[in-house]
Write a structure and sequence with these properties.
With about 190 residues, the chain is of the alpha/beta class. The chain is about 15% helix and about 15% strand. It has one domain (about 1-190). It has an 8-stranded parallel beta sheet, with helices on both faces.
Length: about 190
């Protein structure tokens, strides 16, 4: 199973050639057929519903947007409770919920993760869809990755029975808090 985020490191991957079940984030459906799609933003949900590449997909969103369309599923409930802001479901992004959906549907105990860059290389937003409908302009400051780093670490550590293959480019900087996570392997996306 492959979890596809929208970081620019995945530009070299021909998404339609992936022969595995796909869990995608937000606008990835513009470029490939997905089996599962997470849209936690209502604008993305609106665009995704009825799109050719989501015809047979299970689409997931926040509880707040469930009544907008029929046949949409709620993102998974978090596996823990916490009092800090990054522990609240409203502050979880599509990528982290996509990881949870991948875990729920994983048959072989292994998840490949692409396009989860965390950082940009030029201090600007790092997203293959920047400047398009529902996305920030290319000159926008990047999203602060601290919540993603924290939440991903929680996922990696809690689901120690899953092997996470995290495919990155040469600009990726391993967050210090991820060092020593035994079920996480950082791999060069050029070898995909």
């Amino acid at each position: 199973m492959v979890i596809i985020g929208n970081g620019e490191s995945r530009k070299s991957i021909k998404l339609n050639s992936i022969q595995s079940e796909i869990v995608g984030c937000n606008a990835v459906f513009r470029d490939c057929i997905v089996d599962h799609l997470v849209c936690v933003d209502r604008r993305m949900l609106r665009e995704a519903v009825g799109h050719e590449n989501t015809k047979h997909a299970m689409i997931y969103t926040r509880p707040d947007w469930l009544d907008m369309y029929t046949g949409i599923f709620e993102v998974p409930t978090l596996f823990y409770e916490g009092k800090d802001r990054p522990d609240q479901p409203m502050h979880w992004g599509a990528g982290q919920f996509a990881l949870l959906i991948g875990i729920e549907n994983c048959n072989d105990g292994k998840l490949d993760i692409i396009g989860f860059d965390l950082y940009g290389k030029d201090s600007k937003v790092n997203n293959v869809y920047k400047g398009t409908l529902s996305y920030n302009d290319p000159d926008t400051d990047p999203v602060d990755p601290r919540y993603w780093i924290y939440q991903n670490k929680k996922i990696f550590e809690n689901f120690s029975n899953i092997k996470f293959n995290y495919w990155v480019n040469e600009h990726f900087i391993l967050p210090p808090s991820w060092k020593g996570i035994k079920n996480l392997k950082i791999k060069n996306i050029k070898k995909w």
